[in-house]
Each structure stands twice: as C-alpha cells, then as structure tokens.
Amino acid sequence: VSAFVNFNVFIKPAVNNLYGMEPFDVIKAELVNDVFKSDGKMHFLRGYYSFNESKNSYMVETAVSQSSGNIMVLNNANCLVVIDEEKRNVAKGDWVKCIKI
Fold first, then answer.
1. What is the 3 state secondary structure string of 49-77?
2. pTM
3. What is the CA radius of gyration of the chain?
4. How far is the CA of 90 from the CAs of 1, 33, 51, 95, in angstroms?
C-alpha cells in the first residue's frame, strides 16, 4: 500500500510531466466523516468519492482502516484524500483535495 501511494504521489506526476500531462487528476470533495491525525505530517488517506447530484458536488469518505498492510481497503478505494501538514483534525463537512486513483 505504501509503495502504491508513493507511486501515485511522486512517480506518476513526474512521468505525466515528462509527457506534458497534468500531474494529478484532483477533485475537491466534502468529507462525510471526521479525520484525526496525531502528527504534523501530510497524510494521503485511502477513500471513496462519489458525486452527490442533489448537492451537485463530490462527497468523500475515508476508509476506516488506514493500515499500510490492508490491501483490501486499497482495492475498494478510488482516491487518496490529502490532509495537509498544518491540519490536525478535519471535521465532517470540511472540503478536502482528493487525488483520483
């Protein structure tokens, strides 16, 4: 899982840049659950986004388990939810950046 995340965050954007493509396919989405971090590092959480037609916007839910050994969560994820360094707790209803995978 860690190798997959690192590939999507570092290698894929570099290759896309070489070919003149956008580095990421990024969306903004409303978080449907709270997220708590215990450190000041940037986090890339596995999540699942969907389009909410009634709100005309994307919604995203992070996976319950973010263990680097849990490959099944990665199998069900369709994005990486980016939580910046300066944010410790992100509340339900906050807007976050999501990298499509």
1. EEEECCCCEEEEEECCCCCCCCHHHHHHC
2. 0.90
3. 14
4. 23, 9, 20, 9
Q: What is the DSSP letter of 48?
A: E
pLDDT bin (cut points 50, 70, 90) of residue 36 is very high
Q: What is the pLDDT of residue 42?
A: 94
Residue 90 or residue 68, greater confidence: 90
79 pLDDT more than 90: yes
* C-beta separation of 62 from 89 below 8 A: no
CB distance 39 to 84 below 8 Å: no
3-state secondary structure of 4: helix
Q: Which residues pair with residue 99 across a beta bridge?
A: 26, 80
The phi and psi torsions of 67 (rounded to 5 degrees) equal -60, 135
Are the C-beta atoms of residues 62 and 73 closer than 8 Å to each other? Answer: no
